[in-house]
Design brief:
Blueprint: H1 18-35, E1 39-40, E2 46-48, H2 49-55, H3 61-66, E3 68-71, E4 77-80, H4 85-94, E5 104-113, E6 125-134, H5 139-155, E7 161-167, H6 174-187, H7 194-202, H8 213-218, H9 231-246, E8 251-253, E9 265-273, E10 281-288, H10 291-294, E11 302-308, H11 309-315, E12 325-330, H12 333-348, E13 352-354, H13 362-371, E14 376-380, H14 382-387, E15 389-394, E16 400-404, H15 408-421
Parallel strand pairs: 1-5, 7-8, 12-13, 12-14
Antiparallel strand pairs: 2-4, 3-4, 5-6, 6-11, 7-9, 9-10, 10-11, 14-15, 15-16
The structure holds adenosine monophosphate (AMP).
Adenosine monophosphate binds near residues 114 and 121.
């Protein structure tokens, strides 16, 4: 039967056992970020629309076409966040976190929302893992976050990846370049798509964000920002490259990498998968030296990256940790009560136990334990109950032993240890 209500186009349910993979990936991200001194931050999913218009940029695809915006009951314009950085900047200013010792290092997990055309690897609700650093100007930090991103992808078992880097200059050198770019792009305007013709008027740098293969080919011949950097930006870029070399990371300079947002200055980067099609960017980020100031905060530079969990999980070679389930098989009301009591004690000792309430035969319960791939079953009937014991059965070998009630936890712990040392 076809259900009449289904998930909204471009969104999807993440179901067990796939959720185990998500948990594992999130746990690995957390472990890596904390090893590099990052702290978790959590901000609301809904924000004032103005936050993104101001920071993400009025001429970006995200703001012009992709935001989920609505007016709430108080008449305020609210947006489901399409990206994370503006929220962090808002929180830093609102709570004056900039008064803490810098640099500030934060990480975050959560859903983002963009009303884009859904396709493989592109959703309307997707999940990002973000990191942000504020208050560090040294180009070594640009390289450090790229190194951390690359290491994280290694930990996630991502093979065949490539690091792309670029510099998009600063307020010193970019305006001259944009003037030149506009003049050159005017010459090929007729061949560009409607969106690009509009981009050309508003912000020619956004031409490089176009997803149309036709436009991508045509704009290849346009001048590249990397050839027009001022001395300071060039020095910064050279330093970032030296630090990448120091880490022994191989990378490619990609002069078209302008990253779809208005606030980037100097370094931009992406790590792409060579195993994916059109939507191959696993993560992307860069430096934003003036974003805090744009929001009326202090002049503190920032940088960071966002990783798309859906895309990364589609190429990650990780396996969920195998869980050890203890399944209770009981016969009769009294045995059920004792099983529940044992279950409760074992859960408090950190074991995963399961007991079901249906009154079923021994055979049916054992076959359920098999289906659930239980490591052990604990069998309790009237005889066992009278003797204060239970039968502990190892499911793969079929070996069974008698265990007094008060020793169940200790024996399971020993068995678990033995298994780990195998
Ligand atoms: P961005 O915020 O656009 O720089 O994106 C950072 C990362 O988020 C990308 O490299 C992707 O992995 C992921 N991502 C961005 N947009 C989508 C989307 N619509 N669906 C799935 N993942 C996305």
């Amino acid at each position: 039967m076809k259900p009449s209500l289904t998930a909204i186009k471009g969104t999807k349910d993440i179901l067990p056992p796939e959720t185990k993979l998500w948990q594992k990936a999130e746990w690995l991200c957390r472990e890596v970020f904390e090893a590099y001194g990052y702290q978790e931050i959590r901000t609301p999913i809904i924000e004032p629309t103005e936050l993104f218009v101001k920071g993400t940029g009025e001429t970006t695809d995200i703001v012009t076409k992709e935001m989920y915006t609505f007016v709430d009951k108080g008449g305020r314009s609210i947006t489901l966040r399409p990206e994370y950085t503006p929220s962090v900047v808002r929180a830093i200013i609102e709570h004056r976190l900039y008064l803490q010792a810098s640099p500030l290092r934060f990480y975050y997990f959560g859903p983002m929302f963009r009303h884009d055309r859904p396709q493989k690897g592109r959703y309307r609700q997707f999940h990002q893992v973000d990191i942000e650093v504020f208050g560090e100007t040294d180009p070594a930090i640009d390289a450090e976050i790229i190194e951390m991103a690359d290491y994280l992808l290694d930990r996630l078992g991502v093979k065949n990846k490539k690091i792309l880097v670029n510099s998009v200059g600063c307020s010193n050198c970019r305006p001259n370049y944009v003037t030149l770019l506009r003049a050159k792009a005017e010459e090929i305007k007729e061949r560009l798509c409607k969106d690009c013709q509009r981009r050309l008027e508003l912000n020619p740098l956004r031409l490089f964000d176009c997803k149309e293969p036709g436009c991508q080919a045509i704009t290849q011949s346009l001048p590249k920002i990397i050839d027009y950097l001022c001395r300071d930006c060039l020095t910064h870029f050279e330093n970032v490259r030296q630090w990448l070399d120091f880490y022994g990371l191989s990378y490619q300079i990609e002069p078209r990498l302008v990253r779809g947002l208005d606030y980037y200055t100097r370094t931009t980067f992406e790590i792409i998968s060579l195993e994916l099609g059109a939507q191959n960017a696993l993560l992307g980020g860069g430096r934003y030296d003036h974003l805090m100031k744009i929001y009326g905060g202090p002049d503190i530079c920032g940088l960071g990256f966002a990783l798309g969990l859906e895309r990364v999980l589609s190429v990650a070679q990780i396996k969920p940790d195998k869980e050890k389930l203890i399944y209770f098989v009981y016969l009769g009301e009294k045995a059920k009560k004792k099983s529940l009591q044992l279950c409760r004690e074992l859960r408090r000792q950190g074991f995963t136990t399961l007991l079901e309430y249906k009154d079923r035969s021994l055979k049916a319960q054992l076959s359920r334990a098999n289906k659930l791939a239980a490591t052990w079953t604990i069998i309790l009937g009237e005889d066992e109950l009278n003797q204060g014991i239970c039968q502990l059965k190892e499911m793969t070998s079929g070996q069974q032993k008698t265990v007094p009630f008060d020793q169940v936890g200790t024996i399971l712990r020993t068995l678990e240890k033995d298994e780990k040392n195998k």
